[in-house]
Amino acid sequence: MAATIDFCRTRLGSVLVVGTWFGLAHLGAFTIATFPALFSMGLLGVLPAAVAFVGALFVTLLYFAVADFLYIGRLAAYVAILELPAAPVAELVQPNPSGSDQQSALSTPSSSSIDQDELILSDVPSPVVSG
Q: What burial letters (b/e) apply to 71-109, b meaning 16+ CB within 10 Å?
């Protein structure tokens, strides 16, 4: 329980964003599923009751599948938040030893760490199509 409270306290913004977006997606799925279910019930006077019931049951089961998918996605997002390092922005900026400039830890790596012989997509010659 304490770990959950600590998680929510230290990463409140991320938890709220995930909960909000998945909550809105769930509300949208519920709204979309409500109309076909009500429409199938509205056809009770025209269609046999078994057909209308099967239609409503199909829409309901489809909604449950979407809701479960969203629930699993929300749990996966919480796990992703948990596994990300919680480094404040101030720790990402490291002072330069000369003291004149500050360099971000997220800046481009030095040229010595880049393999100059590695081909990227722009370096690969494209085939010439004749005809």
A: eeebeebbeebeeeeeeeeeeeeeeeeeeeeeeeeeeee
Q: Which residue has the tokens 């992703």?
A: 80
**Residue pLDDT tens, the chain, 131 long:** 898 888 888 888 889 999 999 999 999 999 999 999 888 888 888 889 898 889 889 999 999 999 999 999 999 999 999 888 765 555 555 555 555 555 555 555 555 676 667 767 666 666 766 66
Sketch the domain layout of the chain as residue ranges. 2-84
- Residues with Cβ within 8 Å of 60's Cβ and at least 6 positions away in sequence, in order, are 33, 37
Is residue 13 within 8 Å of residue 76, measured between CB atoms?
Answer: no
